[in-house]
Amino acid sequence: MRILYDYSAFVMQSRGGVSRVLYELMGHVSGVPGIECKVFAGFHRNQYLRDAPKHIKRHVIGWHLPEWMVKQRIFMPVNRWLFKYYARMFNPDVCHYTYFDTPHVPSGCKVVVTMHDMIHELFADMFGTNEPHPVWKKNAVGRADGVICVSENTKKDLERFIDLGGKKVSVIHHGNSLATVAPKKIDCSYSYLLYVGTRAVEYKNFDLVLRALARCMDRTALHLVCFGGGAFSAAERKRIDEVGLVGRVHQMGGSDAVLAGYYAGAQALIYPSKYEGFGLPPIEAMGLGCPVLSSTAPPMPEIVGDAGWYFEPDDVEKTCEQILALANEELRTDLIVKGSRREKMFTWAQAAEEAVAFYRELL
Question: Chunked in runs of 10, what are the mean pLDDT values of the chain (363 residues)?
Fold first, then answer.
C-alpha cells in the first residue's frame, strides 16, 4: 500500500502541534511492514523534517528554506502545482492531507484528513466573521473519504458542526513525542509549576493560573515557569504586576531536551485550557514523572483519566487548593505513579498501526 502525505502543515509551521503530529505519524507509518510511504513537503520551513533522522528523511520529498523566505501565499500554490505531478508519478493508494489544503490526487486514490479540533467553530467570537478555518474544514471533509479525529470529543464536535454524509471516521489518539528524549538537567534555584505552550489566545485560560497562584502565594514558595509561547508581552508583564507575582513568573524556551528537563523538575504541570482537540503536554508530563493539574474541559478527562487532579476552568479557589496540595509528597507520588501507567497507553507506534488499519478499511 502506497501512502502519500502532503506539504500543508510543513509550509505553515516551522515547529508546532499540527506539523509535529503529522511528522510523528508519518515517521511511524513509514516503518509499518508492507507500507510504501512518502511525504511531498515541497518548499517548506519545517524543522522536524529538516532535522529528521536518515531513516525518516529518505521518505521526504522536499527542500527546506529559511523561515523568512517561506510565504504561504507564494509556496502553497507552488507546492500544490508540484504535488499534483508528484502524486501522478507516485500513484498512491491513499493521500493523507496534513491540513486543510486539498491538492489534486489521482483517480482512485482515497483521501484522509485529520481533524485536530473544532476551536474556530466553538469559539467563533474570538476569531471574527471572516475566519476561514470553518470553510476550509468543511471543504476538506467534503473531499475526504475518511476522517481521523484526535479524540472522541473532537469527533463529537465534528459531527455537531459538519454533516459527514456517512463518511468513515476513526478516533486515533496521539503518542508521546518526548518518550525517547533524554531530559536536560535544569539548574533552577526555586521549585515551580510548569505551564507549556501559547498563552495568547483566550481559550488557553492562562490568567486562571496567575490568579490561582496569586491567591495562595503567601502559603507556597512555588514559582511559575512558562515554557514556549514567546517572551511576555507588555500586557502580560502588566498583568503579572497587577496580581503581585513579579519575580515569580518566568518565561523559558529551548529544545525538546530542555522541555523534558523542565517537565522532570517541575512540581506539576498546570493545564487550564477551556478546550483542546487532544492536549499533548499532559501526556508528555506524565511520561516524565510530572504530576498533572488539569481543567475539566474536554477532552482532558478522556486523555488524563484518573492520573490527574481536576479543577473547573473558572474555579480559582479549587486550583489554588490543588497547588497547595502538591506539598503532600504521598499524594504527589500517587499522581506520578498513576501518570506513568496512563502515559503508556499513548504511543506513536499504536497511532500508526491504527492509521494504517483505517487506510486499509477505506480501500
Answer: 98 93 97 96 97 96 95 95 97 97 95 96 88 95 97 97 95 96 95 96 96 96 97 97 97 96 98 96 98 97 97 97 97 97 97 98 96
Residues 161, 219 within the same domain: no
CA atoms in the 13 A half-sphere facing the CB of 296: 8
pTM of the model: 0.94
Write out the H or E segment, with its range, that includes residue 42.
strand 36-44
Query: Do 271 and 234 lie in a common domain?
Result: yes
Q: What is the CATH number of the domain that holds 7?
A: 3.40.50.2000
Is the distance from CB of 94 to CB of 110 less than 8 angstroms?
yes
Same structural domain for residues 122 and 235?
no
Looking at the fold, whether 111 and 207 belong to one and the same domain comes out as no
Residue 181 CA to its chain's centroid (Å): 17
Q: What is the C-alpha separation between 355 and 120, in angstroms, rounded?
A: 25
Partnered with residue 193 across adjacent β-strands are 224, 268
Residue 268 in any domain: the answer is yes
The backbone torsions φ and ψ at residue 190, rounded to the nearest 5 degrees and listed phi first, read -135, 155
37 and 155 part of one domain = yes
Report in angstroms the alpha-carbon separations of 46 from 4, 14, 99, 117, 258: 17, 4, 14, 21, 20
- Tell the residue number behind the cell numbers 465534528, with chain if given: 158
Cell numbers at 167, concatenated: 463518511
SS3 90: helix
Residues 59, 62: Cα–Cα separation, whole Å: 10
Domain holding 86, by residue range, is: 2-175+347-362
Q: Does one domain contain both 219 and 324?
A: yes
